[in-house]
Design goal:
Length: 219
């Protein structure tokens, strides 16, 4: 595998069938220590051919480290999850992390306020929402984005806004909103102006993350 701190995974990678998303609590440690332990565990583990990327993100508030793993095969991911201490087992990094959750990307929308080619994202607002099932999750996302388009316009001409990526867990009970922004200041301004009044009644606006490190298989 290769370590490329400046590179980011392509969320809409057509080869990515499923993603595994987890949070690793600080558990009394400093957040950089937790992130280093996560990456060290990844680097010491065998890399399955179906694993496309691994990325760790640190939160702006010093809370849990977020992990985002892209896989080309659900079967391969399930095999990996069954390997105690394997690359998908967060406890291999010496933490009491909750079990990560498998998601699929459902919808992605792109901002019109950033000229192409899109710059490297530096801020990643992340929020989780509960759902009754897959159909309810799809309807919730569709309704949310439709309401945004009615009030803000289809172009989503937000300064610094690159993309918003809406995922649904494989079991249909969780929605992951994972956005990409040029800067944290622009992300915060947008959240406060557009999303906070709506999402605070639906579970909150989530957490702001920063890219820490991405790993990819050797070319």
């Amino acid at each position: 595998m290769s370590v490329t701190p400046a590179q980011r995974p392509v969320i809409e990678n057509p080869k990515s069938d499923i993603v595994l998303v987890g949070t690793v609590p600080a558990d009394g440690r400093e957040q950089p220590e937790v992130a280093r332990a996560v990456v060290a565990h990844w680097e010491s583990s065998p890399w399955p051919a179906e694993l496309l990327s691994l990325t760790a993100y640190t939160s702006s508030d010093g809370g849990p480290v977020l992990t985002y793993a892209q896989w080309s095969s659900e079967e391969a991911l399930q095999r990996s999850l069954g390997e105690k201490g394997g690359i998908s087992d967060h406890t291999g990094a010496g933490t009491g992390a909750p079990a990560p959750v498998a998601y699929r990307l459902y919808r992605a929308v792109h901002g019109g306020g950033v000229a192409g080619p899109a710059p490297v994202a530096e801020s990643f607002p992340v929020a989780f929402f509960g759902a009754e099932n897959d159909q309810a999750a799809r309807e919730w996302i569709d309704g949310l984005l439709a309401a945004e388009e009615r009030t803000e316009g289809e172009d989503r001409d937000y300064p610094g806004g690159i993309s918003a990526n809406m995922h649904i867990s494989v079991d249909g009970t969780s929605i992951l909103s994972f956005s990409e922004w040029v800067s944290e200041a622009e992300a915060v301004a947008h959240i406060e102006a557009v999303w906070e009044p709506v999402l605070k009644e639906l579970g909150g606006t989530g957490t702001l993350y920063r890219h820490y490190r991405s790993l990819f298989p050797e070319a």
